[in-house]
Design brief:
By secondary structure, the chain is of the alpha+beta class. Helix content is 25%, strand content 34%.
């Protein structure tokens, strides 16, 4: 009798141990007018900052939601930008650099940020008001681009009206701080593909804007897109910024307004990867710093008014940041579910104990 009790206790202990040993661990995983609406959707941006020459290369891969057949938007820059087409191939390459590490464990088989959406009904380009000057006009990366210099927000609004763009007091309010500071405004027109299956979502080609600036920035300001987003059923969007400089940088919204962006990854980039990235972006190998530090920002960009732009500066924290690893389970010789062992004990123990009892009585 005493032997059977000890045997039963031993079997129960084995079951409890198995249940705790093979219970699956929680997997870590890493975490885009006049009667018509346009809003910025998901955006991915590459910013290369050359502190030595105070030059910013701004490459954007954006998407929009719109019920208009064609539309335009405005992009502000501190100086006249140089516009060029940029390859899309660099974006997945940078994504690969910052993706989480994959670990194997054994398991049983069982609008650039300005967001100033403009429905464009015609492409008239005559500049009737002398206080608005066309600095450049070109077709680039599938965009019809016009770089403007205006003396005031009032005359810019008049120019938009006279040249077939939608205009509103909200556009005037948005443009005034930039015009007063002497910034240039680039008007970009996007047209939907005639055979597009998705009638609302528009993906734009990657466009590079290179310009001089004292501080690297992302033009985050935009009028309140809440009503337009609601009309289009847009509820969420992700802004991802790959910021490349000589060191790790922080992002901060101008003024006292907090930015919702966060650092998802930060680290140094190998020389060969730097060379490949520049090649894919159609940029000279001398572009930017010779040693790269990549900081990736992620922002669950809310559909609400953004009162200021985001500026970047050298971070006091120069430690690398990695994403949590992804756990991949592979086959193992033992069942992972501890309940298998409990059931096995429940099935095997009673007849074994009865046999032992009969043997003791005999």
């Amino acid at each position: 009798m005493k032997c059977s009790i000890w045997l039963l206790l031993l079997l129960i202990a084995i079951a409890i141990l198995a249940l705790s040993r093979f219970q699956p661990a929680p997997a870590c995983c890493p975490a885009p007018p006049s009667g018509e609406s346009v809003v910025n959707a998901d955006q991915t941006v590459i910013i290369i900052w050359d502190a030595a020459t105070k030059t910013q290369h701004f490459i954007r891969q954006a998407s929009f939601k719109s019920d208009a057949n064609d539309f335009g938007f405005l992009v502000p820059t501190p100086a006249q930008p140089e516009l060029n087409e940029s390859g899309n191939e660099a974006f997945p390459l940078l994504q690969k650099f910052t993706e989480p590490e994959r670990k194997k464990e054994r398991r049983a088989s069982g609008s650039v940020g300005c967001g100033c959406s403009l429905d464009e009904k015609s492409a008239g380009l005559a500049v009737k008001e002398q206080s608005v000057r066309v600095l450049q006009e070109k077709m680039v990366a599938g965009f019809h681009a016009i770089v403007l210099e205006a003396d005031s927000a009032d005359v810019l609004l008049r120019w938009l009206k006279e040249n077939g763009y939608a205009f509103s007091p909200e556009v005037q309010t948005w443009a005034k701080p930039y015009i007063d500071a002497g910034w240039k405004i680039t008007a970009l027109k996007v047209a939907k593909s005639a055979d597009a299956k998705d009638t609302q979502n528009v993906a734009a080609s990657a466009l590079r804007m290179s310009f001089k600036t004292d501080r690297p920035l992302f033009p985050y300001r935009e009028p309140d897109p809440g009503k337009a987003a609601l009309a289009l059923g847009a509820r969420s969007r992700l802004l991802r910024i790959y910021f490349i400089a000589e060191s790790r940088y922080d992002g901060k919204m101008a003024g006292d307004v907090g930015w919702t962006g966060r650092v998802a990854w930060a680290g140094k980039i190998h020389a060969e990867d730097r060379s490949k990235t520049l090649q894919l972006l159609n940029l000279p190998q001398t572009t930017g710093p010779m040693e790269w530090w990549l900081t990736e920002f992620e922002d669950d960009w809310p559909y609400r008014s953004a009162p200021a732009d985001v500026y970047f500066s050298h971070s006091r924290d120069q430690n690398p940041v990695k994403r949590p690893p992804i756990i991949e389970y592979v086959s193992a010789p033992w069942p992972a579910d501890g309940m298998v062992y409990v059931l096995a004990v429940a099935l095997v123990a009673p007849p074994l104990i009865r046999r032992l009892r009969r043997g003791n009585k005999a």
